[in-house]
Structure formats: C-alpha cells, structure tokens
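pinning this so it doesn't scroll away 📌
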Amino acid sequence: MRVLVVEDEASLADVIRRGLSREGFVVDVMYDGQDGLWAASESAYDVIVLDIMLPVLDGYQVIARLREAGIWTPVLMLTAVDGEHDQAEAFNLGADDYLTKPFSFVVLVARLRALIRRGAPQRPAVLTNGDLSLDPARRRVQRGVNEIALTPKEFALLTFLMMHVGEVVTKTSILDAVWDPAFDGDVNIVEVYVGYLRRKIDIPFAQASIETVRGVGYRLVEAEPA
C-alpha cells in the first residue's frame, strides 16, 4: 500500500511517515503543494494525505488540479482549521475524507485503510439516470435543465446511488461509502439524508426515483433515457 504524504511541518510529516511505515505502508513525503502535485501526477498511489495549509500551492489548489487532470486517487485532507466551510470546500473540490489536527493516529490509519478498500474506480464524466445528471468534476446536479443545489453529503449520497442505479443498497453500505466505516452514530442518519435528497431531486419534479426497500435499504430506480 503506497501513500503520498504532503505536509510542510517536517516533524509531523516524519511522525506520520514513521507511523505509517510501521503499519506496513510504503510512504513518500513532499513538503509543499507543488512537489506534492508533481508526485501525485507522476506516480501511482493508493491514497494521498494532503495538508491544506501548504507553501507554493495550498491543498485546495493541489486537489483541484488533480481532479481536473482526471487523477482520482483517494485523498484525505489534513488541516488545523475546523469549520463547516473548510470541510465543504474540501469535499466540493473532490476530497474523499477530512481530519482536523490534532488527530488520533489510530483514526488516521483506519480512515486510510477504508479509503484504500474503497479504491479509486474510474469516474465517468457525467452520471445519468433519465433526466437526472450528476457531474462529479464540476460538482453539478441537474434534473433536465434545472440545476439542483446539494450539500457535500447529499452530493456524495446521490453519487453513490447513481453509481449503483437499479441496485438495492443497504444502510450499512451507504454509511461505509458516504460516511466512513468508523461511523458510530445513528444509522438512521441515512434515512434523514435520503429524505433531504427526495425533497430536492424528486418532489419538486413530481418524481419518485428513490425507492425504500423495507428491511434492506434503498434503490435508485433505473429510468428511461431522457
């Protein structure tokens, strides 16, 4: 398992490198955003740990350029800044997970392993189902010509459903993919967010595309091409 760590604080980068090496990871370290972008573009990694506050290019710029280049290696972002706006910006640009400093090394390892298990499948330019479309690169959702504003978590949930259109997905699989395997909150959070999605992508358009499969989970009904 090969990991790229992009962290300008040398002491922290060394702690992460030594700790991950003991866990069996092969670790490369870069200390600024420009070198990190070069390494991520030139070599294949299973996962990237990316600080936000970096010299030359910040973490937001790095991940934006990676995603624009079609590089979908899973990225976990690190920052000393704790706020919904910063997390939303990271997810909007294509981050897969987020940790605020100081963090538990055990949690870091668990999340990296979860991202590696999930992998980085080739992401199509646009996911479609009937007149519903989702553009992962531009973070845009449309129903016909109508653009729909979603929160980062709603967007991630819809992405997962559209990647499994026609399939029944369990609450557990949704939690693993959209939240993370270490999530220990109420599983009914999935039901809450499905409700949010329905109110945005279905109800205003007299649609019922998300089915509840009782005792199992949910299914995005496969629609005829628009």
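📌 and the second one:
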Amino acid sequence: MGTTQLESVPEPKYWHLKTVLSEALDSEFSVGEILPNERDLAARFGVARATLRQALEQLELEGRLQRRRGVGTTVAPPRVGVAVGTEQHVWPGTPGDDWQLADCTLAAPPAAVADVLETGRDEPVHIVRRSRMTHGQPLAAELLYIPRSSVPDLSAIDAPAPVARARAVLRELERLELEGQDRSVELGSARADDAKELDRLPGAPVLLVTTRFVAEGRTVALSLATYRADTCRLTFGDSGGVEIDHTPERRAS
C-alpha cells in the first residue's frame, strides 16, 4: 500500500482527504474490515491527526464508516433501500415485513397524531412499537398508532404479553380492507429516546417517514418511523434497483 501525499487544493484539506479515503475504501477494504489506526492513516496521507479525524467523522456521517466501541473504525455495509413510492399497499406485519415487534401499550397519542386519527386528544389508542435491523445494527424505530375503533374486536383476544398484544392488534387491523396509504419523508434530528434505540448520538441526522393507512374512508392507523440517515437510502417505484455512485471524482493535480 503506497503513500499518498495531499497537495494544495481549493477545498478544505479534510474534505479532500475524505474523497481520497472514500476511494481507498472502495478499492482496498471490504465491508466490516477494520481500518488502520489514526497514527498510521495520518502518516500515510501526510496530514495532521486532527485533519484525519474530521475526514473520518464526515465519512461516518455519510454512512461509509462505523465506529464501534471496543472494535474500532470499520467499513460500513451498503445502505438499505427503503421503499417510499411503491404502488403496493399492505398492512404492517404482513408476510415479508422486516420489522420486529417490541411491545404494545394503550395511551393517549401526541396531539398532532390525535388530530390525524380524528380521535379525542385524551382518548387512548394502541401504540405498537417496532424496530428494524440490518447487518446486526439498528436501522429504524417505529411507533404505530391505531385507534381502538379500528380494532373493535380486540377485547375478545387474550394477549396480556406486550409482544403478543402487538401481534393481536396488527392481526385485527388486517381484517379491514386497505383502501390506500400515503407517505411523507423529511429530514430530522434524533431525539434522546430515538438516539438510544438507534445507537446514535442525540441530534444525529435521521429520516422521518410518516405513513397513513386508510380504510372505510378514514385514517385507521398512523406510522411514525425514524430511520438512521447514515444506513438507508430512499427508493421510489416498485423496483428501487437503480444505484449511482455519487462519490465526487478526485481532482487531477
């Protein structure tokens, strides 16, 4: 592995270093491989360790690297495609669903959620909590709000355990004929509870995906999912198979 010295460039040195490091990740390292220590990397590229840290932090923010306590800095796996424009409308929990059930509670939702569900702001609804993993790492956390009127026969089901009750709620929801669903996506910052569940620092960039499920001419469920922005990419359409390398080309000296 040869030595690469950085020359004078118009952009900040750490940003140019990030581009050079990104090229090295593509050509010299495999997913999960541990990078050399900071001293060796700084010596290879002829930069101060402070400059190197800035570049590594940027690559981590972009999802190219993962810093794992007790392991070191490793090459991150490819981003997971999250379909937000598919024409296929399905209930949460149907076969092929990658989400894992965590628990289910009965509580009053946030005011904005109650307004969308058209329930009273103090009226308890079923709140199903789910999570999604990729390559052994947390990818997303979801809160699914379901009014009791959407699953009126649930009381006849004996499901005292949180996960069993969550499964029962979703099973009862599937009895309705799904008429449609719509989604919106926006960039946000991880709140303290989201950050803990997603193994990120509070304030880390996240993608907030809101999904409204419609049946019987009304909103019967609302999903608020928080995705790690560094581990996923949004796809539109049914295939979602188009991928383009957006890594900037290294400028010729």
